[in-house]
Amino acid sequence: MTPIAFTLIVTGVLLNACAQLLLKAGTNAVGHFEFSRANLLPIALRLGTQWPIVGGLACYVVSVVVWIMALSRVDVSLAYPMLSLGYVVNAIAAYYLFGEALTMQRLLGIGIVLVGVYVLART
Questions:
Q1: What is d(CA 96, CA 25) in angstroms, rounded to the nearest whole number?
Q2: Average pLDDT, integer, range 47-55
Q3: 14-28 b/e with 16+ CB inside 10 Å = b?
Q4: What is the Cα–Cα distance from 39 to 33, expressed in whole angstroms?
Q5: Distance between CA atoms of residues 106 and 112, nearest Å
Q6: CA–CA dist 5, 13 (Å, integer)
Q7: Residues in contact with 77: Cβ distance below 8 Å, sequence separation at least 6, in sequence order
Q8: C-alpha distances in Å from residue 12, one per residue of 34, 39, 48, 117, 121
Q9: Which helix (H) or strand (E) holds 73?
Q10: Sign of CA dihedral 27, 31, 35, 41
Q11: Contact at 8 Å (CB) between 24 and 90?
Q12: Pfam families from the entry (predicted)?
């Protein structure tokens, strides 16, 4: 894998992870809500005016462009599993940003993902 392809993959992964974290921040600001006919429009307006939600959606748009560029350089069978690095980034970032738990079971899962990506990247 070339350095440019690797950079594109990592950038795509980080943009995707950033999008998830921004969406979570936006929903935290809105709070728990239920979808129903009565509150569909008010909830949509509340979500649509949260800058983290808008930023998260923008990150997704940019990540798709970056991902398409990566796929033009790397086999999808190699690139797609690299997206699992986003699980690692999100788990660690959620711990620091949102106080989410990093239990031993989650840490073990993160370790397994990292080993899998390492094995995959060496082939």
A1: 13
A2: 93
A3: bbbbbbbbbbbbbbe
A4: 9
A5: 10
A6: 12
A7: none
A8: 32, 34, 24, 15, 16
A9: none
A10: negative
A11: no
A12: EamA
In this prediction, residue 40 carries a pLDDT of: 84
Question: Which strand (E) or helix (H) includes residue 123?
Answer: none
Q: Is the pLDDT of residue 114 over 90?
A: yes
DSSP string, 6-56: HHHHHHHHHHHHHHHHHHHHHHHHH------TTTHHHHHHHHHT-HHHHHH
Average pLDDT for 87-96: 95
pLDDT at 13 over 90: yes
Residue type, 18: C
| Angle, helix 85-98 to helix 3-30, in steps of 10 degrees | 40
pLDDT at 123 over 80: no
In this structure, the chain runs to a length of 123
Closest CA relative to residue 83, chosen from 27, 4, 74: 74
Give the global pTM. 0.86
Which residue's structure tokens are 């129903």?
36
